[in-house]
Fold this sequence. Notes:
The chain has a single domain, classed as 4-Layer Sandwich (Phosphatase 2c, domain 1). Helix content is 32%, strand content 29%. The chain has helices at 54-69, 75-95, 143-150, 158-163, 197-200, 205-213, 218-231, and strands spanning 3-11, 18-25, 35-39, 44-49, 103-110, 115-121, 125-130, 133-136, 180-185, 191-195, 238-245. Strand 1 and strand 2 form a beta hairpin. The protein is globular. The chain starts with a strand and ends with a strand.
Amino acid sequence: MTTTILDERMLPHPTLRLTAAGGTCVGNRYPANYDVLHVGDELLAVADGMGASEGSATAGRTAMATFTAHPKGTPEALREAVAAVQHDVREAGRQLGGQLTGCTVSALIPGPTDLAWIVQLGDSRVYRRRGTLLELLTTDHTAAWLGAVNGWYPHDSPQAHLARYQLFRYAGHPDAPEADLIAVTLRPGDTYLVCTDGIAEQVDYQHIDARLSDRAPLTEIAAGLVEDSLRAGGQDNATAALLRIS
């Protein structure tokens, strides 16, 4: 089992104090970590490869490299960045002989004002704790999400469990689906969490809420979320990126 915690860092911003950190863990199930974590000056992002194969690892690395290198200052630029991700991941799959090469991508991109953009493709997630409320800001692009919203089956049923693995949108999809673009405002006191499903599916809402309400250093909170995923079984790679506004 390997755990990596990124040092806390300041992100450049003209009016707000933005502090970021992150952590990732292989867990107990997989031989390697197929999640990719990025905490940089321009954005926080996670990618989660589909399955445990070279295609999974290649998809995550390719998607993150393409997305972080592409201009992202406007909604149009973000759409172009996602289109480039789709192209490059599909091309990587062709070079691997057509094996499944896909991943999720979730990102938070602060702008020069109090506006930030969320990019959502797949079933990784973005949460925000503002005041006393923890909100899930993104939608999972899965059959499980549609089933839960429309009452197709109980959320804890075997059908719901299987439906978690049926993704309608992801990087590398043959139809190159677009990502959700969500505009949010950054307010002092906010804490954002960008995470893979190894956190979201293993650490319950109350535990995430308790972690994000803590005013401890973000490195400690990231480590705590990873530890929570291990205590819950560690059945998936688990990755978390955190942003605090003050």
